[in-house]
Amino acid sequence: MSIKTFWTILLKVIGIWMFLSGFTAVTYFFSSVGLISYAENLNIPDVIYYIGALLLILGLFLLIIKMLIFNPNWIINKLKLVKGIEEETLDLNVGSNAVINIAIIVTGAVLIIDALPLLCQSIFIYLQQKTIFRNDPGAGSIILLLAKSVLGYFLLTKSKIISEFIAKKKVDKPEPVE
């Protein structure tokens, strides 16, 4: 495996991890937009500034993820990650698709390990309280944890399809020449 391939795989793994952890960030984004209505002394310029700042941050986050997953060669070239490395290859007998596949499986497992116990705990607390679903402030967390668990399961079972999709995007775009 070449040094450039190693950096490509590493950047894609970081991008996939950021994408999956971004689901939690997006839920906080929408909840913070909802909190604007509860603010006292609310004026229009402050609301526009606040929502604009949130959208800018969300846009930058999505742009970074897109660059990490679908265009890591641009990052490698701009940061000069392969410059000054004397050895041209790393002695690993694993293909890049296999490494991405393993990374997706590990990410899915981490999501399930992270979300499933909290989901069970939230459902247990919800059933103990016997409240109406729409009046329970913890219901949103149950839905989020359920979505994370399902996403983790999807990553575990469909990792090959996802890694082929990422590899296909890599093949579709020609590498820039310097």
Please outline the helices and strands.
Elements: H1 3-35, H2 44-70, H3 72-79, H4 96-129, H5 139-157, H6 159-172
Number of strands: 0
End-to-end separation: 21 Å
Quote the beta fraction.
under 5%
Largest sheet: none
Helix percent band? over 70%
Order of helices and strands: HHHHHH
Kindly state the mean pLDDT as a whole number?
77
Question: How many helical stretches?
Answer: 6
| Shape field | flat
- Give the radius of gyration: 21 Å
> pLDDT under 50 segments (min length 5)?
none
Q: Structural class given helices, strands, pairing? A: mainly alpha
Description:
The chain is an all-alpha fold and 178 residues long. 76% of the residues lie in helices and 0% in strands. The protein has 6 helices and no strands. It is flat.
What attributes characterize this protein structure?
single chain; 178 residues; mainly alpha; 6 helices; flat
Outline:
This protein has about 180 residues and is an all-alpha fold. The chain has helices at about 5-35, 45-70, 70-80, 95-130, 140-155, 160-170.
